[in-house]
Prior knowledge:
Elements: H1 9-39, H2 45-70, H3 79-109, H4 115-127
Amino acid sequence: MRITNMTEPASTAVGGYALGKLLGPSIGLALVVVVVMSMTMPTTRREWFVALICTVVASLCGGAALIQWLAIASWGATVDGQIALGGFHFAAGLPAWVMVRGWFAYTEASKGRSLLAMIKELRAATKGE
Length: 129
């Protein structure tokens, strides 16, 4: 009879829990980047990097803020809850990509104008003038 070494159940469970804590937000972040970049590809590398960084930061910070605001951080105790929290990170990154792309489009259309003129135009637009 041959005796084989088995892994300790406690350390395996801790490893799986830690992996789940990392995968929940990471899956949400990866999906948001793929989805938004598939919808509207940036025209330059500079625009791509800025939009990518803004999207990832908005996914992390916006998702975390949303989770805290809704008081659902306890969902992280289960794998299903971690996946759901990843969805909040995903949803928080989508508006950031749209805002960055809109800003690039606006600044490209406003080439040659001063920053002060652009600010005045934006203020007038937000006030409905």
